[in-house]
Amino acid sequence: MAQSAATPQHFREWVPTWLKAVVALFVLFPVMLINGAYTGSSVDISGFLGVWSEDINMAYFAASAGMAMAYPVIPIVKPVATTKTIILTVLFAQLILSLVCATTSYVEIIIVASFFIGYFKAFSLMEIILIITPIVAPSGTRNEFYSKFYPITLTIGQLSLVLTAEFAYSYQWQYMYYFMIVLLLIAMLLVVIFMAFGRKLIRLPYKEVDWYSFFQASCVMMAIIYVCTYGKTNDWFASKNILYASISIPILGWMFIRRQLMTDKRPFVDMSVLKNRNSVVVFLFSFLMMFMASFTTLSSAYVTSVLRLDATKSNELFLYMIPGIILGGFICYYLYRWAIRMAWLMFIGFACFSLAIGLLYFNVQPTGMYEDLYLPMFLKGLGMLVLFVAMGVYSIQGLEPQQLIYNAFFLICARSALAPAVASGVMANWLYRAQQKNIMVLSESVDSLNPAATSLYNQTYTSSLAQGLSIEDAKMMAANAIYSKVQIQAVTVSIKEILGYMLIAGIIILVVILLYFFKYRAVRLVKVGQDLT
């Protein structure tokens, strides 16, 4: 009854239930789609601005960091503003920031704008969740809600990669920002027309926010992201910037934790969440989940460097995650109805990742086919959805209602901000080092006694002469052909080597899940129709 009574305050009285769902989902679409930097068009943006692709990745990860930093502030802002006021304010702020990103030529501004776009995204996302919960999950249980909500949000996330790549390929990279501005304007118009009870803020609660803690936590996350993103480019600790950022991480982290534990006022983050074993386990496994999911970095390198396809084809692979995501939603919903043991859901999710990595390991080869990547991406979508839902339900076991928002802070930090940045940095550096090593190893056997190398050299040399090239140019073309062949082989071997280690890690994780989760009494899972909280 409480849910039903609270629902009319969001919309005008004449708005039917089906229209409420349509409006909420349409507002959700730009909220989930927007970002300060879009990795699908990172090559185009970096080429236009004359910056590194790492700069664009930094901006992308900064949005996740900003989103995490918003969660401790939400309980302070929520009591002094209505849903309509919050949504309109943050949508307008994101519109302005998107316009800034589209028109600026300074990547530093894009990074800062991305941070605040993610910050404002958290506010609008929380409000939309409050609106659609009674519509999407009439039972009011988190297991039903997550099984329906995560397929929507993860699907939108995959579409964003394809949309940005298509806009950059067909038009210019700025058009994605202009497209988002149009969507935000339409969303704001829908909010003004259909939602009710919009009023000005009673007061700005800026004094109640511990901005010093906000600054400390933001700097820690951004420093970690900076080190992981620029480490390979700047040769790690040979760079003073990397060294200074690395030193600042433990210092600022210790200062932040000490301030939360020693303050007499309301702490910025309730650290008691870390006393809950279930939450800590989920934070750890969320990190491992995103690390295992980073095998798409290797598949992208395989598509562009071995199969010699463009970045658009690489981004289109993410579309094949969508069927897996949708199937995962159905699986989670019905498994929760049967109250299946949580360990099996965790096992299914990581098993999908391990199987996807295993398929890639055996399919990656110089003569491989693009279609061989469809099934691994499908399995990734399935595994990710199952783990998102399972961990979302498992992490709140044993927490008080007032601790849930801080649990979300730690979860977003681990799952969305830090894990992708760390995994991306590790994968990029690992692939680069392995590729250089394998090029040296393979080059040692490339000489006049190697029949394959000699045949390729003579064939290319003869073909170049037949095309009218000079002898010197023909020799250069033949040498380049051999180097290209060696490079493709080196990338292939490097990718298979990394995938092999990841497959071993996946098997170890599966064993740990069986040993750890089955060691304890089964977590009680309520059936759909009962209130989980």
Automatic annotation (TrEMBL):
UniProt entry tagged with the keyword Membrane: yes
GO function term, MF aspect, one: transmembrane transporter activity
InterPro entries: MFS_trans_sf
PANTHER family for this protein: MAJOR FACILITATOR SUPERFAMILY, TRANSPORT PROTEIN
Membrane topology reported for the UniProt record: Multi-pass membrane protein
Protein keywords: Membrane, Transmembrane, Transmembrane helix
Organism: Dysgonomonas macrotermitis
UniProt-annotated location(s): Membrane
Any single GO CC term annotated in Swiss-Prot or TrEMBL for this entry: plasma membrane
Highest taxon listed in the record's lineage: Bacteria
Transmembrane segments: 21-38, 58-74, 86-107, 113-137, 149-169, 175-197, 209-229, 241-257, 278-297, 317-336, 343-362, 374-396, 408-432, 498-518
Protein name as catalogued: Major Facilitator Superfamily protein
Keyword Lipid biosynthesis: no
